[in-house]
Amino acid sequence: MRFSKSRLLDYWEKVCFWLWIGLVIALPISSFPFFAKVLHTSSVAPAAGIFVLLLTAIWLPVYIFKKGFFPFQVKPFLFFTLYCILTIALAFFRKSPYYPGSSLISNSVEALATLGMGFLFFLISSSLPRDAKAIKTTLRVLNWSGAAMLGWSLFQFIIWLPANDFPQWMRDIQGVFSTTVLFDKRTTGFASEPSWLAHMLNLVYLPYWLAATIKRFSVNKSRIWFLTVENILLFLGIIVLFLTFSRGGLVAFMLVLAFLFIRLNFQFVRWIVKKWKIKRTALVGASIGMIMLVLYVGIGVAGLFVLSKIDPRMETVFQFSSSEDNPIIKYVDNLQFGERVAYWQTGWNLFNDYPLVGVGLNFSGAYFPQYLPAYAWQLSETRELLFRTGNLLNIKNLWTRLLGETGLIGISLFVAALFVILMTAIDLTKGKEKQGITVGWMGILMLIAFIGEGFSVDSLALPYYWFTLGLVVATWRWNQSNWSENKNG
Asked: At what angle do helices 247-276 and 206-214 cross, to 10 degrees?
C-alpha cells in the first residue's frame, strides 16, 4: 500500500497532536518513577517530559524541515538559554571548590539537561498548537487532567482523616505516580511533594480557572445550575491548595488575590464617585484606599491566625522577640523556615562575589560550605545535608539562584523574556475573542504567582511555568494570524 506525501503529513500531524494531548494529561505528575530511572534522578522527572522528548524527536525536525515558523517570543528565551550554556562553559576556566561526589562534568550535564528540558517545553508549547481549535482542546484536556488531580488530592485527605494515616494500598498507588511518599496531614496529589502540587496549581490550573471565572468563559458546555466546569474546579483547586499547607504556594496565591483586590479597589472607588456624585479628590481616593488596606490587612492576619491553629510550623507566627541576638533569624527558624532563608542568603553571597556572570548554572552547590551564612551551621537540616548525605545543597529560590549562578546578565535576560510574555498577555486581553482574552489573563495571573513561587522552587526543568508561558504565546499567535487574515481579506 502506497501512502501519498499529504497523507503521511496528516498522520504525522495527528500523532504529534495526540502526543501533545498526552503531555497536557501528564502535567500533574512531577516525578514519574519510570522517567526518574531513565534520568538517574529521584526528584525532577515530570511525566510530561517523556512526551516532550518524543515530540522533540518526531515533531521538531519535520517542523523545521518544513520551514515552520517560531514566534518571536522564543528569541528572548533562546538568548537566555545560550547565555546559561556560556556560564557553564566559563565554569571550566574557574577554580571551583571541591565537593565530594560532585564534578564539573556531572554538574554540566545536569545543567544542560534541566535547561534543555525547560526550553523545549516552552518551544513546543508555543509552537505546536496552531489554531483556536487546538487551544480549546488543550484547555478542555487541562480541565479534565486538573479534575483528576484534584480528585486524587481530596481523596488522600479524606482517607487520612479517620486514622491519621494512609493505608498501604494508597501508598502503593502513589508509588506508581511518584518517587516519594505521601505526607501526613498534607495532600500531595500526583506530585513529588505538597509544595510542588501548590506550584503546579499556582502556575497552570488556578490561573486558567480564575481567569475563566472572571471573564465568564468556559470550554465545556456542561453546567451545574449557573456554574461552569471552571467555576467548580477553581473552588476545589483553592481548597486543595490550602490542604497542601505550602506556605510559599499560599503566599503566591495571595499575591494574585492582592492584585485582583487592588483592581477591584480602583473600580470600587470609581463606582462610589459615580454613584454618589462625589468630587474625585486625592483625599477621597486616599480615604477609601486606607479603608480597603485595613480590610486587606485584617484578612491577612485572620488567615495567619487560622494557619497558626492548624499548621504546627506556624504556631509561633505571632511570637517575635527583639531581645534575641539575631531576632529575625530566630523568628524564621521558629517557623521552620530558617534553612530556606540561609539557602537564599547563600545565593546572594555568591552574587556579591560573582556579580556579572555568576559561578555557572548548576554550580552553586559546590560553593555552599564556603558561602553559607554563619548561623546556618547551627541549623540541623543544613548539617544533616552537608555531613550525612552526598547531595549538593541548592538555593531553593529561583531569583537568588539566577543571581548567584548566572549573575546580573542572566537574571536580566530571564526577566526581560518574562516581560515580553507579559506584554503578549496584555495584548491578548485587548482582543475581541473571549478565549484569547481568558488565556491572556491566565498569563498575567500566572506571572504574578510566579513572583512568589520563585521564592519556593528553583528548578528550570519543572514544566509548569514554561507550559503556561508557551500557551500564552501560542494563543497570541493564532489571534494574530486571524487578525492578519481578516485584514487581508
From this structure: 10
User: In sequence order, what are the beta bridge partners of 227?
Assistant: 224
Give yes or no for a contact between 42 and 98, defined as CB atoms under 8 angstroms apart: no
Q: How far apart are CA 301 and CA 318, in angstroms?
A: 10
**Mean pLDDT over each residue of the chain, to the nearest integer:** 85
Q: In the chain, which stretches have pLDDT less than 70? A: 1-4, 40-42, 101, 268-289, 292, 303-338, 380, 385, 388-390, 480-489
Are residues 233 and 143 in contact, defined by beta-carbon separation less than 8 angstroms? yes
The answer to whether residues 182 and 192 touch, using CB atoms and an 8 Å cutoff, is no
For residue 418, give the nearest of 73, 113, 111 by alpha carbon: 73
DSSP-assigned beta bridge partners for residue 45 = 31
59, 25, 214: which is closest to 130 by C-alpha?
Answer: 59
Residue type, 271: W
The whole-angstrom separation of Cα 408 and Cα 402 is: 8
With beta carbons less than 8 A apart as the criterion, state whether 189 and 29 touch. no
Would you state the pLDDT for residue 138?
96
How far is residue 161's CA from residue 150's CA, in Å, rounded to a whole number?
17
Calculate the CA 251 to chain-centre distance.
Answer: 13
The phi, psi pair for 31, rounded to 5°, reads -140, 80
**Residue 164 neighbours by CB distance under 10 Å:** 8
DSSP state of 312: G
State how far the Cα of 462 lies from the Cα of 27, in Å rounded to an integer.
Answer: 10
**CB-based contact 358:395 (threshold 8 Å):** no
DSSP assignments along 180-201, one per residue: S---TTS--TTSSSHHHHHHHI
